[in-house]
């Protein structure tokens, strides 16, 4: 029997540890190291005062396990390069900015020199101005060209909200420049009647990688005049381009560079990231070009108070009698309510769409008991809303009409929300980079800010709130992406060939894996070689072979049965878990029950209802080894890395009582299985090691299962992933290894680099896993250490002490770090046809 954990959402609640609140002295991570020079802060209560008020309720103070104080920092000015147009400098000064920060001037200088540059400074450090000033200056120069349309610039953002926000900023800044600068958003929401005007006359086009991939590049002849004049490509929030998504974007940018070269252009890339380790290395891997790094943050910032908050234990017990902590969702809703009553403008970041909706509903209900007018000043913001709903929420947040917003990461990425006082983070967001990005949303007007991380009942969250040094003494993670992943590269080679036939001269641009892939694509009758070039052979669009966000397939539409109204969409890969029959679906504060899911027509029919529960899907997973690329002896056991095939099926769902999370029942489902070819790390143990660890056969499955759950929970501390990105399987006797085996795999076709990172950091990763389990004070295991609400086997069996003993013996045989083979594993050979790639993690 295999015990499994397919990639899925993270759960809520925490470990019963007793820790005295303490203030921790912190040497800051690279982009967050303040100096000790104090600056003026905005009026209003200080972040410390706001936190004191939050902690003043019954038992509230004991929930704060740690408080970090980041002192304010003074700024360092410079002057703009003299090659910047005087009109642009004047426009910037009319916006109230007399002198740039030193890093802004330095980045502009590189851009003018024709060097691609990445600006990797803190949140609200003025990165937008660093790239806008040289861009506007070039557009102004181009407007005076005697022939042609003049210079153009392309702006890429990971979300539509950020592109729309940037357009507002550009219009305001460029207003004194008249019609010389013509910014326009070109995305899926752009009306068709506007698109031709943008192609012909827009000289600063703001879009996203998805639209570039599906809309602009395949239609490049219609964009020829724009591409011919392309001077700058701005890649904003470039740290978000990681894993499979980042690998796809890297190939999209190579296709863009190839078409620009065809039209005689060689644009300079200007990248921006608030949080990135080795930003020049990541930017070079993303663009395929040499990139200069500007990372010395010269901007000022106000005081930041960062609190770690652990919800209390409840009187309830979960599966196998495990103690249950109050959910992070309920705790965050309470804090958001309290902050709104105080008039503190707050954004609560939540991992899931459902969580964002729940927090807003709970906060609205509680605010209505205080003052009905306050309830209207809290809302939810998430992906899947219709465009007009998103725009209305963004305007309300900008204007201050909204006091509180429960948002998914759709609002994390750079939307300029001035005047926020506090940020609540409902559960560790998966990486330190995202944590600092979210915390940086507050205090953007220069005043002090409060950030509170509310821990979920999850091994990693529990570990972090009691080991603050793992957050505050460590730099942000390196960005992991693999453009050579054949599941990523193959469809982009097809798309590139459909745009312009591929020649031998193009192979260097797309990477060394091309030589092996092109014959395979030719054998699959996707490409055909004629004379000296490869041509696309199919009638359908090559760009439709892949979804660059790794989701695949067309979105499932969510339709209200009584009215036929379209409520929104959900990705096909998530449909099995999110909108299965019987699922509870939340939208704009209203609750719906899914009556049917038609996978063939991609439609979920829902009707409004008010069930006293939420739903959580359960699944089963099996795994087979396709190829072992690397293996290392760990004593008698072995640590391996290679290619696997995972088969997953959603089999049932649980109904959980709102607020408490108590399980009310389970309902079976009949959904088809899905297969996934990906990359995995796995470890095996021998009979002798089991004897040494005192693991008899009757507890072996539970010990392996517990170690698997906890290791999945801890991997985000060592790789730029979260639990949505990875899955796992544990087997007492696996048919391919013939030994007890634990697998942890990437939840994306072809892999995303996370399992490879786990392989190379396995000693530290598994040591932290053992520590997380052993330090939890529960008796037999709980959600804080070894339980998972997404477990396909209902957390049965699990054996906490057996897992600790097993990991202890395994780690005893681990080689020293310098002895481990550092060679990176090769990409998977023989990928399937791109159009048939496996399903993503839900």
TrEMBL record:
SUPFAM superfamilies: P-loop containing nucleoside triphosphate hydrolases (SSF52540). Transmembrane segments: none annotated. SMART domains: DEXDc (SM00487), HELICc (SM00490). Residues 829-842 have a biased composition (Pro residues). One of its GO terms (molecular function) is helicase activity. Residues 335-487 form the Helicase C-terminal domain. Keywords: ATP-binding, Helicase, Hydrolase, Nucleotide-binding. InterPro entries: DEAD/DEAH_box_helicase_dom, Helicase_ATP-bd, Helicase_C-like, Helicase_put_actinobac, HRQ1_WHD, MZB, P-loop_NTPase. Gene3D superfamilies: P-loop containing nucleotide triphosphate hydrolases (3.40.50.300). Residues 23-77, 815-842 are annotated as: Disordered. Residues 815-828 have a biased composition (Low complexity). Residues 108-294 form the Helicase ATP-binding domain. This is DEAD/DEAH box helicase. The lineage of its organism: Bacteria, Bacillati, Actinomycetota, Actinomycetes, Kitasatosporales.
């Amino acid at each position: 029997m295999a015990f499994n954990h397919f990639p899925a959402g993270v759960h809520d609640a925490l470990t019963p540890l007793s820790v005295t609140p303490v203030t921790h002295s912190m040497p800051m991570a690279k982009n967050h190291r303040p100096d000790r020079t104090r600056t003026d802060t905005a009026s209003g209560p200080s972040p410390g005062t706001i936190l004191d008020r939050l902690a003043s309720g019954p038992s509230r103070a004991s929930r704060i396990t740690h408080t970090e104080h980041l002192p304010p920092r003074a700024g360092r000015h410079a002057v703009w390069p003299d090659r910047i147009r005087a009109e642009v400098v004047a426009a910037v000064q009319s916006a109230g900015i007399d002198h740039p920060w030193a890093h802004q001037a330095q980045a502009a200088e590189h851009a003018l020199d024709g060097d691609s540059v990445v600006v990797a400074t803190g949140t609200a450090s003025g990165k937008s101005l660093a790239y806008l000033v040289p861009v506007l200056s070039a557009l102004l120069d181009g407007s005076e060209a005697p022939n042609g349309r003049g210079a153009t610039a392309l702006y890429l953002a990971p979300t539509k909200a950020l592109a729309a926000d940037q357009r507002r900023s550009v219009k305001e800044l460029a207003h004194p420049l008249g019609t010389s600068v013509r910014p326009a958003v070109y995305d899926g929401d752009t009306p068709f009647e506007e698109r031709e005007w943008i192609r012909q006359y827009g000289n600063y086009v703001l879009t996203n990688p998805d639209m570039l991939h599906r809309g602009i590049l395949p239609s490049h002849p219609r964009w020829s005049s724009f591409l011919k004049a392309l001077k700058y490509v701005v890649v904003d929030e470039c740290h978000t381009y990681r894993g499979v998504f980042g690998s796809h974007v890297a190939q999209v940018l190579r296709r863009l560079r190839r078409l620009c070269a065809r039209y005689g252009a060689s644009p300079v890339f200007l990248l921006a990231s608030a949080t990135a380790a080795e930003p020049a290395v990541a930017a070079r891997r993303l663009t395929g070009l040499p990139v200069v790094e500007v990372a010395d943050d010269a901007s000022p910032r106000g005081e930041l108070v960062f609190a770690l908050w652990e919800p209390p234990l409840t009187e309830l017990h979960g599966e196998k009698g495990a103690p249950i902590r109050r959910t992070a969702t309920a705790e965050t809703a309470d804090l958001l309510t309290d902050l709104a009553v105080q008039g503190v403008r707050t954004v609560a970041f939540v991992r899931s769409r459902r969580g964002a909706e729940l927090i807003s509903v709970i906060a609205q209900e509680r605010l209505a008991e205080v003052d009905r007018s306050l309830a209207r000043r809290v809302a939810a913001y998430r992906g899947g809303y219709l465009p007009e709903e998103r725009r209305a929420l963004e305007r309300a947040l900008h204007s201050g009409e909204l006091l509180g917003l429960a948002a998914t990461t759709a609002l994390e990425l750079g939307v300029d929300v001035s005047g926020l006082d506090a940020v609540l983070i409902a559960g560790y967001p998966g990486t330190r980079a995202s944590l600092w990005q979210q915390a940086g949303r507050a205090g953007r007007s220069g005043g002090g800010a409060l950030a509170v991380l509310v821990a979920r009942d999850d091994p990693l969250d529990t570990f972090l709130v009691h080991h603050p040094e793992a957050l505050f003494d460590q730099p942000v993670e390196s960005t992991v992406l693999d453009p050579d992943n054949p599941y990523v590269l193959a469809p982009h080679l097809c798309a590139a060939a459909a745009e312009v036939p591929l020649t031998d001269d193009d192979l260097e641009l797309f990477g060394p894996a091309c030589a092996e892939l092109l014959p395979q694509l030719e054998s699959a009758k996707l490409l055909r070689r004629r004379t000296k070039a490869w041509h696309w052979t199919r009638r359908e669009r090559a760009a439709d072979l892949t979804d660059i966000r790794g989701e695949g397939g067309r979105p499932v539409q969510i339709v209200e049965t009584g009215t036929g109204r379209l409520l929104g969409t959900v990705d096909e890969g998530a449909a099995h878990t999110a909108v299965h029959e019987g699922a509870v679906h939340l939208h704009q504060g209203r609750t719906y029950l899914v009556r049917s899911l038609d996978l063939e027509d991609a439609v979920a029919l829902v009707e409004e209802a008010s069930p006293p529960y939420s739903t959580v899907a359960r699944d089963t997973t099996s795994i087979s080894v396709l190829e072992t690329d690397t293996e290392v002896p760990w004593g008698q056991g072995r640590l391996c890395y290679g290619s696997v095939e995972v088969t997953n099926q959603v089999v049932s769902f649980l109904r959980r009582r709102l607020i408490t999370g108590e399980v009310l029942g389970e309902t079976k489902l009949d959904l088809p299985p899905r297969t996934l070819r990906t990359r995995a790390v796995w470890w095996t143990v021998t009979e002798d090691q089991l004897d040494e660890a005192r693991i008899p056969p009757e507890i072996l499955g539970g010990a392996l299962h517990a170690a698997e759950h906890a290791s999945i929970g801890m991997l985000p501390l060592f790789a730029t992933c979260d639990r949505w990105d990875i899955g796992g399987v544990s087997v007492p006797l696996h048919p391919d290894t013939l030994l007890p085996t634990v697998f942890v795999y990437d939840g994306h076709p072809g892999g995303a680099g996370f399992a490879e990172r786990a392989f190379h950091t396995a000693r530290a990763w598994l040591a932290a896993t053992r520590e997380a389990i052993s330090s939890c004070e529960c008796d037999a295991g709980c959600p804080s250490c070894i339980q998972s609400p997404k477990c396909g086997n209902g957390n049965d069996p699990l054996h906490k002490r057996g897992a600790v003993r097993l990991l202890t013996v395994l780690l005893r045989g681990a080689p020293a770090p310098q002895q481990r083979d550092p060679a990176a594993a090769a990409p998977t050979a023989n990928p399937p046809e791109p159009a048939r790639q496996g399903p993503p993690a839900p």
